[in-house]
Write a structure and sequence with these properties.
- The chain is of the alpha/beta class.
- It is built from eight helices and 13 strands.
- The strands form two sheets. Strands 1, 2, 3, 4, 6, 7, 8, 9, 10, 11 and 12 form an eleven-stranded mixed sheet that branches. Strands 5-13 form a two-stranded antiparallel sheet.
- α2 (about 30-45) crosses α5 (about 125-140).
- It is globular, with a radius of gyration of 19 Å.
Length: about 300
């Protein structure tokens, strides 16, 4: 089966105010998402499923349908607060979406094949999509999932500390867990996490970071749905609680369902953590175009 790419884009509208103002970074007016889809097509993905908000669907389709028609199959699903609530009602003080695992669950009806999941506004790089496609076509099973592991050093910001999920990997190259490190920066050439005012932990150069690029078998949907029922039972009255992919992955490993391989990539990740990062993203993409990694206009 040919793999599918699932893009979590439901949060983009709130960041940009309107889908019509979605930020353009490439020389041909491309969004970061355009580069991900372009790389995915080249790697052999045959379908892209966008997880979006219903109220921005028409604006979103107007941006992407003309570009992608005839190049890749497109589907749209909506991450709405009232989906998969199993009898619960959305609490009145709940403003936050239910989280990234709930976002994936909202794609259940649109995905029947092995699939990758990414964030809409992160640049992941061609090598990452090649590795993901190879895994999804040849190794993915109901018991074997994967995460693309980035060199932590390739994910830092020039403009402040970053929060990253650092992968704990066993001797077989499988994920043991993801430790959230909240204040990572490079100081005097050394990567450190500031755990407190007086405690800084040095991080090795070869440590792998999760940038939310996951590879799943469609069997994961039932596991996520079951987990979400428990999450609601435990957290329905907590307006800030989120049902997140790292938590789901951790539960999947700990309950003995199978393994999650950590697939290393040489790709450099970049995204907009701070508004000052936007020119860096633009510059990085222009450099890749100049190096002939991408054409001047992706879709011409």
């Amino acid at each position: 089966m040919e793999p599918t790419l699932v893009i979590m884009a439901a949060g983009m509208a709130s960041r940009y105010g309107s889908m019509k103002q979605i930020q353009q970074f490439g020389p041909g007016g491309e969004t970061i998402m355009d580069y991900s889809i372009y790389d995915a097509i080249k790697a052999g993905f045959k379908k892209v499923v966008f997880i979006i908000r219903k109220d921005f669907a028409e604006d979103f389709k107007a941006i992407f349908e003309p570009k992608l028609k005839g190049k890749i199959e497109t589907r749209y699903v909506f991450q709405e607060m009232d989906r998969y609530l199993d009898g619960y009602s959305v609490p009145g003080d709940r403003k936050k979406p239910w989280g990234t695992s709930h976002a994936i669950l909202c794609a259940k009806e649109a995905v029947n094949e092995p699939f990758a999941v990414i964030n809409a506004d992160d640049f992941y790089g061609a090598d990452a999509f090649k590795k993901a496609a190879d895994f999804l076509k040849n190794e993915c099973t109901p018991n074997v999932y994967a995460i693309i592991g980035y060199q932590l050093a390739n994910t830092l910001s020039e403009h402040g500390t970053v929060s990253r999920g650092v992968c704990e990997v066993n001797s077989d190259g499988n994920l043991v867990g993801i430790k959230e490190r909240l204040k990572i920066s490079r100081q005097n050439g050394v990567m450190k996490d500031e755990e407190s005012e007086d405690r800084k932990v040095e991080l090795p150069e070869d440590v792998k970071a999760s940038m939310n690029f996951w590879c799943f078998h469609p069997s994961v949907f039932d596991f996520i749905e079951t987990g979400f029922k428990q999450f609601l039972k435990d957290n329905i009255d907590n307006p800030k609680a989120e049902y997140l992919i790292p938590f789901t992955a951790d539960q999947w490993i700990k309950t003995g369902k199978g393994v999650i391989k950590v697939i290393p990539t040489s790709s450099k990740w970049f995204g907009v953590t701070y508004k000052e990062d936007a020119p860096v993203v633009q510059r990085s993409l222009n450099e890749l175009v100049q190096q002939k990694e991408y054409p001047n206009n992706l879709w011409k």
